[in-house]
Design brief:
By secondary structure, the protein is mostly helical. Helix 6 packs across helix 8. It has helices at residues 9-16, 20-41, 45-65, 74-96, 113-131, 135-146, 151-158, 162-182. The protein is rod-shaped and about 95 Å long. It starts with 8 loop residues before the first helix and ends in a 5-residue tail after the last helix.
């Protein structure tokens, strides 16, 4: 860690004028402190680096515009600006939902050839298994799960209660799982 540095009007004037050695000292001195502070509050190392750069940029811009009136308070000013930048980063991340550094890539919405092939194979297995069920079970499963018919309408047509329809569906699904497991499916 660095030793404490005392800022004065001459130092601030050299920064305003763009003195390379003074700018280097300023960036090194405050950059390290801001980086440590931001890294402790943000989850992302790139976010902490962004806070460091934005803070230094704003302070230098304000110095050159002459908005800093008390050179001896430069350290406190930099600290305050960094707090504002960190808060802005929190608000922006909350709105945009930045992912943490360790998060992988977001999977594509498009299916791969392999997943298409697996889906077709599963569909064929289910179709074969359905053909081995009774007509009543096959029709019930098709209407409720494939055609997404209203359960109350199915109950009325079959003259059963909603509770008994649940029992019938449970039995039909159980028989389907049994057929799938016999055929080496994914039951």
């Amino acid at each position: 860690m660095q030793s404490r540095f005392s800022f004065d009007a001459a130092y601030v004037q050299r920064l305003r004028e763009g003195d390379p050695a003074t700018e280097e000292h300023f960036a090194r001195y405050f950059g390290e402190l801001i980086q440590i502070k931001a890294a402790s509050r943000l989850r992302s190392s790139t976010g902490a680096d962004d806070v460091r750069q934005e803070t230094l940029l704003r302070v230098l811009r304000n110095l050159r515009e002459g908005t800093i009136e008390h050179p001896e308070r430069l350290g406190a000013y930099v600290y305050t600006v960094s707090n504002h930048v960190i808060q802005e980063t929190f608000r922006r991340n909350r709105r945009t939902g930045d992912l943490p550094d360790g998060a992988g890539e977001i999977p594509s919405e498009e299916t791969s050839a392999e997943s298409d092939l697996l889906q077709a194979e599963r569909s064929n297995l289910v179709q074969r298994a359905l053909s081995e069920l009774s007509e009543k079970d096959r029709e019930l499963l098709r209407r409720i799960f494939l055609d997404d018919e209203d359960k109350d309408a199915v109950c009325k047509e079959l003259s059963v209660t909603r509770e008994y329809l649940r029992v019938l569906l449970h039995r039909a699904r159980s028989r389907l799982r049994t057929v799938l497991s016999r055929g080496g499916g994914f039951g």
